[in-house]
Sequence to fold (801 residues):
Amino acid sequence: MAVCVAVIAKENYPLYIRSIPTENELKFHYMVHTSLDVVDEKISAMGKALVDQRELYLGLLYPTEDYKVYGYVTNSKVKFVMVVDSSNTALRDNEIRSMFRKLHNSYTDVMCNPFYNPGDRIQSRAFDSMVTSMMIQVC
Amino acid sequence: MEAAAGGGCGSGPPLLLSEGEQQCYSELFARCAGAAGGGPGSGPPEAARAVPGAVTAAAGPVADLFRASQLPAETLHQITELCGAKRVGYFGPTQFYIALKLIAAAQSGLPVRIESLKCELPLPRFMMSKTDADTRFGNPAELHGAKVQIPYLITEKNTFKRMDDEDKQQETQSPTMSPLASPPSSPPHYQRVPLSHGYSKLRSSTEQMHPAPYEARQPLVQPEGPSSGAAGAKPPRHQASLIRSFSVEREPHDNNSNYPDEPWRITEEQREYYVNQFRSLQPDPSSFISGSVAKNFFTKSKLSIPELSYIWELSDADCDGALTLPEFCAAFHLIVARKNGYPLPEGLPPTLQPEYLQAAFPKPKRECTLFDSYSESMPANQQPRDLNRMEKLSIKDMADFPVPAQDVTSDDKQEQNKTRLEQNKIRLALKSTADEALPKDMSEDPATSKDSNSLKARPRSRSYSSTSIEEAMKRGEDPPTPPPRPQKTHSRASSLDLNKVFQPSVPATKSGLLPPPPALPPRPCPSQSEQASEAEIHPQLNRAPSQAADSSPTKKDIPYSQPPSKPIRRKFRPENPAPENQEPSSTVGGPASAATGKPHTAVQKQSSKQKKAIQTAIRKNKEANAVLARLNSELQQQLKEVHQERIALENQLEQLRPVTVL
Fold:
């Protein structure tokens, strides 16, 4: 149901970015890039509270005409950004949260792999398959 | 025999056979023809009628042979049609060869076409059935062993090597790992050439870098990744061959032969090898290997990091960053398979699932339980082992710590406490060495969640270590029992600290001898005078009043023993360094013993013994003190190091925390 899924490292470079194959995938990359500013803004807004109290799920970052962008930050400042088609009627917040939770779980599984160096691009097949399951297929 | 030569019917397509293929085909043809000749009535009349003088293969044995190739009937029909046998009505050499080649093509997954003949193909494989003992088709290797294979291997040195290994392998064990091992008869030549070259390189490289562990593997595992199309046809054949030709021990596995993934089945021997490797990394088979340890180990296999990462992903079923024994075996097996050219599976094969592995190999599990009980019952034995392992962490001093001459039990406890301290220190230090697994294994319940293990263990261990240090120190203080109090001496005398008294006694004795106290009788006086002189000499006023107090009662005693004191005093002179305890004041110095008379000799002897005992005890105490002081200093150093590490860790944690200041 997501159109584009991205995992961005603490230093704001992408660890993993994947979108459904369309003619102009680059616009998704731009959207993700611009969403990083919004993420930082949200983090800073909550920043005065204790880290533990800060919620991981950031919610809707910004809506555009066609798409909505949701964000999620882990405690290690790794950001998950998801672009969802607006026409997809009423994806509820809970569903988005569950999708992010799945992403987070898969990400921790990737981290558990001792052959994975933090900061590398994510090439895990399990992660790929999980993301695929989340993404819609454009007919 | 070229196609031209055998081309009695020239309409057959041109057939190019390699040397090996020629030999194989000719042999098969000869068998079929021989069978035909043997069974005169078996062949159809047409065959007998056919071209006189030309050797033909009877349809019966040929059909058997074709069926032995395990191809579907439809394919066989196609083949017979294509090869022209149906057209001409018999199986001449040409037709036979064409048919064989087509069978090979079909087995390799290529379509049954004439064009396929132009490719160089592996030799066709045929399954032999026990009933057809007479008509021995197929698998000449298994019939003739190395003899038949040798002519095939003229072109391929690599395959020759492989053949030797395969022969040994057939002798030693049942090769379930390699599907090609079971019908090794016709080692495919062409397709294997690039792979076998790679394999030989692999072998040499693996031998270079890893002689011990991987060499054992090579005879076990035979190459190579067959073309994917053939993979499907092979497993059923393997199952049949397995059932047929291998030892009884394979039979229980027939029940599990539902799994069509023979390459992923671990044999007993492989399993033992994996378990040994596991034990070399982690002595407790029921515990796990940490990720970093496993990473170092598997990196030695020289596979690429993405591949290793994928193998880990497959084998670490619970994704906890550590490998239990079945997970480790699965990972090792996958690495072995990959090194020998098998493509990695998309998912973990069922035979490599941890539950399956644990169920299929109960013996190692039993060993695991044995080890568990062993480890539980004999923690002390492990600790010395841990000591050995920890030597490389520059804690050798602790291991070589001289045992003070004290109670044995206390020494053991001290050692245990020291080792525990080392383990705790290592845990705290977060060093990624194999030793880290040991403390985890040693102290923590492996059943607890592994993620919390590392976190919980550290604070727990810290408190534990502190108590153990204290206990050690306490125990260190206890063993040197205080010197036996002189019971026969005056009560107030016992309050004197004999240590302090002995040291100044030497100068005191001399000084004491010199001034005979004017006020008191000469002989017995020296004790009093000594006391008095001591009181004068020694600025320690604390003792002075006590001594003065002591001297007063002794003064009374002394006059009574005056006469005999002289000779006794001389006797006691050499005993100056040996204090006496009979009187508190007399115990002060050797000459003080002069105050005692003959009735005191027995007491004096006892007191001398006591003095000796005291002195030995003092010596022991001093040694113990030195030892403990050294221990203390070393522990202090380690404490400093641990503190530094802790500070470093806290810094890292601080850096990782999200910045809240804005």
Remarks:
- The CA atoms of residues 6 and 94 of chain B lie 6 Å apart.
